[in-house]
Amino acid sequence: MARPLIILLLAAAGIFIIDQNIKLLFVEGLRYYTDCIDLILVYNKGVAFSMFAFLEEALKWIQIVLLGGVVGYTLWLKKECYILPVGIMVGAGASNVYDRFIHGGVVDYVYWHCGFDFAVFNFADVMIDVAVVWLLILNFKPKFCKN
Predict the structure, then answer these.
(1) What is the Cβ-side half-sphere exposure of residue 5, based on CA atoms within 13 angstroms?
(2) How does pLDDT run across 31-45, given as a tens digit for each residue?
(3) Of 101, 87, 92, the residue nearest 135 (C-alpha)
(4) Which of 11, 22, 85, 87 is deepest in the core (most CB within 10 A)?
(5) What tens digit of pLDDT does each residue of 42-78 get?
(6) SS (H, E, C) 100-112
(7) What's residue 51's pLDDT?
(8) Candidates 19, 35, 38, 108; catalytic one
(9) CA 85/CA 63 separation, integer angstroms
(10) When comparing pLDDT for 48 and 89, which is higher?
């Protein structure tokens, strides 16, 4: 049980540290504009596409409970193949929640506007997407999850 927990914590810490350092660049003033992608600073008060912004302060507490539930459920399942993607997801989610405590909203900075306007997002959001796809593959293709 110790090994999976260590892997989960190391993955979470790694993603958290990478994401927070990238965000720090934008909080300190980094901006870059191109024809398709702008690197700008936006504080998102909600979740994806600013949904649930009306929850205000309660949102960060709800997210903490959800992250704790994901970790608890993953450890309860005892499937080691889920540990790394869940660690990535938890690190990214924790980084976004941390932003809510420090900045009052999630620090987003990648704005895609090539052909259509897309939501502004960050590295943590991409890592959450990667982790979710990874977990879906593990669930729908059990041969990839040996234990």
Answers:
(1) 5
(2) 999 999 999 999 988
(3) 87
(4) 87
(5) 998 877 666 666 677 888 899 999 999 999 999 898 8
(6) HHHHCCEEEEEEE
(7) 60
(8) 108
(9) 18
(10) 89
Confidence of residue 121 (pLDDT cuts 50, 70, 90): very high
Burial class of residue 131, CB neighbours in 10 A (0-12, 13-18, 19+): buried
Establish whether 129 is a catalytic residue. no
Place of tokens 């909080």: 27
Q: Are 142 and 82 in contact (CB under 8 A)?
A: no
pLDDT at position 50: 65
- CA dist 135 and 83 (Å) reads 10
- Which parts of 55-110 fold into alpha helices (H)? 57-77, 83-103
Report residue 131: phi and psi, to 5°.
Answer: -65, -40
Kindly give, in sequence order, each residue whose CB lies less than 8 Å from that of residue 7, ignoring residues fewer than 6 positions away. Answer: 83, 84, 87
CA–chain centroid gap for 93, Å, is 4
Q: Exactly one of 19, 35, 38, 125 is catalytic; name it.
A: 125
- In degrees, rounded to 5, the angle at the alpha carbon of residue 29 between the alpha carbons of residues 26 and 30 is 60
